[in-house]
Amino acid sequence: MSGMHGGGGGRRGRVSGADVVAQRAENAEAPHIPNLLRRIAGLFAPHRAALTVTVVLVLISAALSVVPPLLVQRAFDEGLFPPGGTPNVQRLAVLVGVMIAIYLGSQLLGVWQTWLTATVGNSVMGALRVRLFTHLQAMELSFFTRTKTGVIQSRLQNDVGGVASVLTNTVSSLLGNAVTVIAALVAMLLLSWQLAIVAIILMPLLVFAQRRVGQVRARIASKTQESLSDMTAITQETLSVSGILLSKSFTRQQTEIGRYADENANQVKLQISQQMSGQWFFAMVSIFLSSIPAIVYLVAGLLMGSGTTAITAGTIVAFTTVQSRLLFPLLGLMRVALDLQTSTALFARIFQYLDLRPAIRDAPDAVPVPASGDAVGRVAFDGVTFAYPDAGADSRPTLDQVSFTIQPGQFAAFVGPSGAGKTTVSYLIPRFYEASAGRVLFSGVDVRGLAQRSLVSQIGIVSQETYLFHATIAENLRYAKPEATDAELEAAARSASIHDTIASFPDGYDTLVGERGYRLSGGEKQRIAIARVLLKDPEVLILDEATSALDAISERVVQAALDTASRGRTTIAIAHRLSTIVSADVIFVVDAGRIVESGTHTELLAADGIYARLYTEQVTSPASVSPSPTSPSPTPTTPTAPIELTRLESLTKNPR
Question: Which regions are flagged for Pro residues bias (predicted)?
Fold first, then answer.
C-alpha cells in the first residue's frame, strides 16, 4: 500500500500559516488519481443549481465593486464641483443614493453568496466524510494494523475538512478576483490611461514586498504550529490516565512540568515574533498603499500643469479609489495556482482511500449461517495455511497445514509457546483475515461463502484487552444489542457475576466507566465484557487469553463467569495459563504454526510432550499462583466467597 504515509499534515484548503515551499512539496507527494477533476465535479453534481447561482453572484458582486469609484468621479465633477462652480445638490443626491444602493445590494449579494457556498461546501464535505468513514468500516483488519491511526484521522478531519474551503475560498476567490482585477483595470484606463500606466508599473513592487514579508510570516507561523503540536502531544501524553499514572509512579511530575514549560517558553517567543512580523508587514503595506496614491497625485499634477490632458479632481479621487482596491485581488490571483493544486491534492488523498478495495468481501452468492442442522456451531480447519500480508516472502507461514474439528457445544483450547499461531486461529474463524490456503468451515459452510455480517453475529469474542467506551455501563452493554431491555441487561450481568458489583455503585448501570474503563478494576471490566457477549448470545464463543492479565482473585471470579458463559455453546479458548483449560473437552497444542498434539488434559500429560512440559513448568514456577477451576478452592474466611470478592473489589476499585 504505497503512499499511505501521507495524511494531510494538519493543513486545510488554502495555504494559511504554512510555508509555500513546504506546501508545494506536500502537494507534489499527493497520489495520482485518474480522472480526478471529473470525479471532483461528480461530488458537486447534486448541487448544480446552487453552484450556478453562486457563480452568477460572484460575477455580479465583483463587477459592482468597481462601479462606486466611477460614481465618485461624477459626484465630484457633476455634483460637488460642476463647471458652473455651484454644487448641484440634486445631482449629488441621486449619485449618493445610487452608491448607497450599490453598497447595500453588494452586501446582500455577499451574504447570499456566503450562505450558498457554505451550504454546498459543507454538504459535500459532510457527505464525503460519511462516505469515507463508511468505506473504512468495510476495510479488513490488516489495513488498520499496518496504517497509523493518526494518518486515518488526518484523512477524515484535515483532508476532508479542507474540501469545504475549495468552494468557499478557492473557486469563489478565482472568479471574484479575476473579475475584480479586469474590471478595475478597465475602469482605470477609462478614467486616465496615463495614470493607469503609472499604477500598473508601481503595483508589482507592492506585490513583491507583500510576498517577501508574507513568506517570513509563513515560516514563523509554521514553526508556531509545530510548537503547538508539540505542546498538544505533551498534554496528551502526560495528562491522559496512563500518562498521569506513569509520571506519578516514577515521581516524574517535575520533569513533565519542565518539558511543558520549555515548550511553552518557545511558543511565547514565536508568538511575539509572529506578531512583530505582522506589524512590519502592515507597516510596509501601509507605506506602499500610501505612496502609490501620492505618486499618482504627483503625476496628475505634472500632467495638469503641462496641459497635455484634462484630469479633474473627480478623476483623481476615483482613480486612487479603484487602484486601492486592486492590490488584494491581484495577490489572490497570484496564489490561485497553489490553492488549486492544494485543493486537488486534498481530493487525491481522499480518493486514494476511497479507491482501496477491502481484501475480504462477501461473495456474490454469499449465504447466511445455517440456523438449524447438526453442524450448527461446528468449527473446522481443513488444511489451513496462513501468512500475514506484511510477512516476508521467505518467512514461514504463521499457520501451516492446520486441520482440526470442534464439535457443537465442545470446549476446545489452543495452547503453545508465544508466537506459535494460537491467536491467528481466532482471527480466521470470524474471517478477520483470509486463509492463504485450505478452508475454514463454520456450521459446515466455508466462511468465504457466508455473509460476513451473519458470520460475525454468531461469534462472541472476549479478549485479554477489554475495550470499553467512555460511556455508562448500560451503554457499553447495549453495544452488543441496542434494543436490549433493562431486564436483559441484568440477566446478562448476573450470568457474568457482575450484577451485584454494578448494583453497589451509586449510579448502578448508569455509572460512567471512564476512558477505556479506567474507573473499573480489571476483573470488573472483563466481566462486563463477558456480559456484553452474553447479551449478544452467540453460537460460538472465542476466549483469547481472557484472564491472563488478571490477579489470582479476579481470575477466579472471571473464570467462573466464563464457565457460565460457555455452557451450551461451542467455546474456543486461547490460553496461556494452562490451569484455566484443564477441563477442556479437547486441547490443541500449537507450535511453529502446526498442531503437534491434541487430546484431553489427562491424555496430554500421559503423552509427556510439549503440553506436559509447559504444564509442569507452570505448576512448579513460583509465579504460578492461578488456581485451577477444577481444583478445590481455598477455604473462604467469610461465609460466602463470591460476596467477599465483590465487596473487596467494590471497596478498592469502585468508580472514584
Answer: 629-639
* 399-406: strand order across its sheet: 399-406, 379-386, 437-442, 445-446
Alpha-carbon distance of 395 to 245, in angstroms, equals: 39
- Who's near 478: CB < 8 A, 6+ residues apart? 484, 489, 535
Q: What is the predicted pLDDT for the residue at 640? A: 32
pLDDT band at 413 (very low <50, low <70, confident <90, very high): very high
| Per-residue pLDDT reduced to its tens digit, 266-288 | 888 888 876 776 566 667 666 76
Query: How long, in residues, is the chain?
Result: 656
Q: What's the CA gap between 204 and 210, in Å, rounded?
A: 10
CA atoms within 13 A on the CB side of 176: 23
Quote the crossing angle between the two packed helices 193-239 and 253-306, to the nearest 10°. Answer: 180
Q: Is 497 exposed, middle or buried, given 0-12, 13-18 or 19+ CB atoms closer than 10 A?
A: buried
Q: Give SS3 for 82.
A: coil
Condensed to tens digits (0 to 9), the pLDDT of residues 539-577 reads: 999 988 776 656 666 667 777 777 777 777 899 999 888
**pLDDT over 70 (residue 653):** no
Which residue's C-alpha cell is 468557499? 168
pLDDT mean over 150-157? 75
Q: Which of 537, 511, 535 is nearest to 524 (CA)?
A: 511
Q: What φ, ψ does residue 302 adopt, rounded to 5°?
A: -65, -45
Query: What's the rounded mean pLDDT across residues 367-389?
Result: 90
More confident residue, 486 or 299: 486
Nearest to 631, CA basis, from 561, 584, 583, 593: 583
Is residue 357 within 8 A of residue 449, CB to CB? The reply is: no
The SS3 assignment for 543 reads: strand
pTM equals 0.67
Residue pair 544/423 in contact (Cβ under 8 Å)? The answer is yes
Tell me the per-residue pLDDT of 17-48, one tens digit each, with 9 for 90 and over: 445 666 666 666 677 888 888 888 888 889 88
What 3-state class would DSSP assign to 385? strand
Secondary structure of the chain: what % helix, strand, coil (to 5)? Answer: 60, 10, 30
CA distance 322 to 187: 8
* Residues contacting residue 504 through CB under 8 Å, at least 6 positions apart: 646, 650, 654
The whole-number pLDDT of residue 125 equals 85
**What is the residue type of 601?**
H
d(CA 178, CA 185): 11
Local structure of 482: helix, strand or coil: coil
Degrees to nearest 5, angle at CA 161 with 157 and 166:
155
Q: Are 253 and 247 in contact (CB under 8 A)?
A: yes
Q: Which of 179, 137, 128, 183 is nearest to 157 (CA)?
A: 128
Whole-angstrom distance, CA of residue 447 vs CA of residue 460: 16
User: Which residues have CB under 8 Å from 145's CB, separation 6+?
Assistant: none
What b-and-e string marks burial along 569-579, b requiring 16 or more CB atoms within 10 Å of the CB?
bbbbbbbbbbb
Cell of 262: 520549555
